[in-house]
Amino acid sequence: xxxxxxxxxSYWNPVxxxxxxxxxxxxxxxxxxxxxxxxxxxxxxxxxxxQDAGLEPGDIKSFEDIHKVPKIDKDMLRDTQQRxxxxxxDILTVPTEKVSIFRxxxxxxxxxxxxxxxxxxxxxxxxxxxxxxxxxxxRSTDRVFIPFGYNIFVAFWAGHYAAEKLGCEVVxxxxxxxxxxILKMQELKCTAFLATPTYVLGMADTARNKLGIDxxxxxxxxxxxxxxxxxxxxxxxxxxxxDAWGAKVYDHIGATEIGAWSYECTEQxxxxxxxxxxFLVEIEDIQTGEPITEPGREGKMVITAFDRFAKxxxxxxxxDVIKWADYGCDCGRTFRLIEGxxxxxxxxxxxxxxxxxxxxxxxxxxxxxxxxxxxxxxxVSKKGDIDDILLRIELLPGKESEQxxxxxxxxxxxxxxxxxxxxxxxxxxxxxxxxxxxxxxFRDLRKKGx
Amino acid sequence: MEQFDLPGMARDIRQLRQLAExxxxxASGMEAVHRNVQRILxxxxxxxxxxxxxxxxxxxxx
Lengths: 450, 62
Prior knowledge:
The structure holds 2 protein chains of 2 kinds. By secondary structure, chain A is α/β, with parallel strands linked by helices. Chain A contains 13 helices and 20 strands. The longest helix of chain A is centred in the first third of the chain and has 22 residues, at 21-42. Chain A is globular, with a radius of gyration of 22 Å. By secondary structure, chain B is mainly alpha-helical. In chain B, 84% of the residues lie in helices and 0% in strands. Chain B is elongated and about 40 Å long. The two termini of chain B are 14 Å apart. The A-B interface holds A 4, 8, 13-16, 18-19, 23, 26-27, 30-31, 118-120, 122-124, 127, 277-278, 307 and B 1, 3-4, 6, 38-39, 41-43, 45-46, 49-51, 53-54, 56-58, 60-61.
């Protein structure tokens, strides 16, 4: 095998993942036009949207023209669900008898969005996860544990199918409780698993404190792929997970309405690659909507899935806040990097005491203090006319005598990372809620429904 | 990229699609054939995404 041959073994698709930027952009334009034409011809929702804007697919001739195409958002997806055909609405491009699988969003931000996929769309989900797992070093020699509740949420379903497609041996963790999952991973000498950052830390906590198992020493996990929360790209959270498991932790970012659109590779250059062969990612200024093409400037993501056909995702305003990295990656992929992953959501970033606050910044501060437990809760409220931030935390067992020093360091970190002061409450270890999928740690009582 | 025979692979993939569609046509509604062909065609689509789409760009640019 030549050195080039070996290099190609790092890529799921060595052609697409190393395509020169000019050809990649030509491919993206061609694929954008194809999905736009498909949606216009087959989805009453999209045709109405585009006709109302006076746009026809033929109007898109250049990459710059893409900005003329109206965006969609989650509220529009919810609205269209009120129309026939039930339960997806008239965004659907195929008869419902062609739909082979139902999923829905978690409902974190409101009424859940229902997602329809045909078998082909499901193959595409799986394919996009093959890019992820292969880039993170998963091979046919891996035994992959999936500690996930296999239900209406897409979560790790596609990861399961992709691991199978790569030739891995998959162990579905299904309805087992956390302790049983850990014991099964130990018994089978599993080499990898997929979970949310919250659950990665929660499993380690259960292993240590309930089972007397040190995951880093007593299990065989070499790599972990995270999804569903930003923690996999938060440096201090990643380090905490890697230390707990003695394993490499790789992030991936995706969403039910979009697909699995980005992945960290084994080089870990400080952010994930966007899979630009399957998705078009645009970044827009949060206030003005002006396109941002330069690195280092945060904006909200507008994304298109090129190859998802039953319920197309075209110029979806995801509210995710990202920025292009100003560096490349030694892995050789030409897919661009987003620095630090998703740094927040434009609807999560809130003004407190006149300062913009992103919940991920609080997480970063907490995770940088090793004596703190994994769980915390933030509540923002009004005391009279003044904003108040209450942060409830736990100390790890045996650290109680160091409380004053720990809290001083935490306050310093919070001030550095968020430029805000907090009211701290220390709760008994194990008393804050534990989560298996996405954690709900941030509440803003100033907002309706917060 | 020149190390890969993209045109040759793309040609084979197009033949796969044609063959699968012809088989579906011959099935005359036999579900055991039709449903398996639909699954094959979903995988053929993944091959098209991985190979044919880019090969068409490549050819277009030459």
